[in-house]
Amino acid sequence: MNPLFQALLLLGLTAYSFAAPAADSVRWCNKSPQEQRKCEALKTATGHFTCLEKSDTMQCIEAIKAGMADAITLDGGDIYEASLANHDLHPIIAEDYGETSSDTCYYAVAVVKKGSGFSFSELKGKKSCHTGLGKSAGWNIPIGTLVSEGILKWEGPEKEQIESAVSRFFSASCVPGAAKDVYPKLCELCANCARSHMEPYYDYEGAFKCLKDGKGDVAFVKHLTVKGKHKIAPQ
Fold first, then answer.
1. Quick one: CA torsion of 125, 178, 144, 103, rounded to 10 degrees?
2. Domain annotation covers residue 98
3. Among 31, 160, 191, 198, which one has the highest count of C-beta atoms within 10 angstroms of its own C-beta?
4. pTM for this one?
5. pLDDT tens for each residue of 57-90
6. Three-state SS at 119
7. Closest CA to 210 of 106, 73, 107, 112
8. CA 72 – CA 121 distance, rounded (Å)
9. Is the same domain home to 121 and 220?
10. Per-residue DSSP letter, 92
11. CA of 218: how far to CAs of 78, 130, 208, 234, in Å?
């Protein structure tokens, strides 16, 4: 297949509220025990951080809005949500991977195992692995492309939520953050469907692991996730 879609998106951005942190200490909100441990290590090394742990991205966004925290690390899709008027957070830092330029961009790709024998237009009925509900490379871009190309049939939000259409399109999925009780097929391949690292198939590496473990037929990630991996074909 041809390369899918290019997303000129800010990578690994930090959403930061307008409210300035007290003195020179930044209150960092973390979405998992793993993030919390990294924050605590940074705090020990620099002395300029305090660490707050919440269960998911939205709780951290709400904590910043409420003045309980100052900053959080987000991907492009979550930055859009955080920037809406009811949250009013703003990106201040972009991660530079040092590839060919200083531009913070990546390609959103659909990845399958070599020899799978199906194309992007033949994904209906397959099992899918996503980085998370509302995330750029793992949800917004691939699902938007499937809809815009007429591969996934959806009549719009006035008729139904996009999650309903995706549930009908794929035979089973892992979409961390989906409402498990409302859209059980979107959580069928997940361990617990949490939109945090409490779910082993969350985020880029998690979605790739979902594919590698044989749970899904296709994973939607960024191209940097699969660079250097073997027996995997980005589509």
1. -120
2. no
3. 31
4. 0.68
5. 888 988 998 889 999 988 767 776 777 667 778 8
6. coil
7. 112
8. 36
9. yes
10. E
11. 22, 9, 9, 10
